[in-house]
Design brief:
The complex is a heterodimer of chains A (about 110) and B (about 110). Chain A is mainly β. Chain A has no helices and 11 strands. Chain B has a single domain, classed as Immunoglobulin-like (Sandwich), CATH 2.60.40. Chain B is globular. The model of chain B has no long low-confidence stretch (mean pLDDT about 95).
């Protein structure tokens, strides 16, 4: 399967703590993106990191990419209850426009 | 946000019946995608389109066909629905930026096959 694997599958933390989720993939990629899905809704784009970048920040989000290990991580700092959602990595197989998604991490932030 | 609408949003059907799900976008995006979402599997690509009348298979295309006769519409058809096709289906279109663009998603179509 070309699908990405994410871990943990589920994560429960207290408000104010940091949340880290990881994505591993098997193919060569052009870029890697992270998406968020609130329960019962469509996915929303969070951040993109290109294959020649190692780290990127956006507000409380920090993404890293290690192409040698074919892995990426998403860190959400100072989490809030409103961050409760599922998070997915997504990537393009190089040379195609097939966007492949990871299996997702369900994050629950307790107030 | 890109205007992407899916219809129907909910459908219950019986095994063996044909089903068509419609995705409509108003952003003139070239690339469009159909995914299914099942617990434990995340989103899996069924088919995608890279232009009018141009489509290609994804990871889980068996039992599904697609058509794109206009830029704005991408149809997903289950010729003979099976219980294994009970799922939530998401359509997406790729925004400007080519391979660095972001995907814009519809709200999903929940299909139950009895």
């Amino acid at each position: 399967s070309q699908q990405g694997e994410e871990d943990p599958q589920a994560l429960s933390i207290q408000e104010g703590e940091n949340a880290t989720m990881n994505c591993s993939y098997k193919t060569s990629i052009n870029n890697l993106q992270w998406y968020r899905q609130n329960s019962g809704r469509g996915l929303v784009h969070l951040i993109l990191i290109r294959s020649n970048e190692r780290e990127k920040h956006s507000g409380r989000l920090r993404v890293t990419l290690d192409t040698s290990k074919k892995s990426s991580s998403l860190l959400i700092t100072a989490s809030r209850a409103a961050d409760t959602a599922s998070y997915f990595c997504a990537f393009l197989n190089s040379g195609t426009y097939k966007y492949i998604f990871g299996t997702g991490t369900r994050l629950k932030v307790l107030a | 946000d890109a205007g992407i609408t899916q219809s129907p949003r909910h459908k219950v059907t019986e095994t063996g019946t044909p089903v068509t799900l419609r995705c409509h976008q108003t952003e003139n995006h070239r690339y469009m995608y159909w995914y299914r979402q099942d617990p434990g599997h995340g989103l899996r690509l069924i088919h995608y389109s890279y232009g009018v009348k141009d489509t290609d298979k994804g990871e889980v295309s068996d039992g599904y066909s697609v058509s794109r006769s206009k830029t704005e519409d991408f149809l997903l058809t289950l010729e003979s629905a099976t219980s294994s096709q009970t799922s939530v289906y998401f359509c997406a279109s790729l925004g400007a930026g080519g391979n660095t663009g972001e995907l814009f998603f519809g709200e999903g179509s929940r299909l139950t096959v009895l």
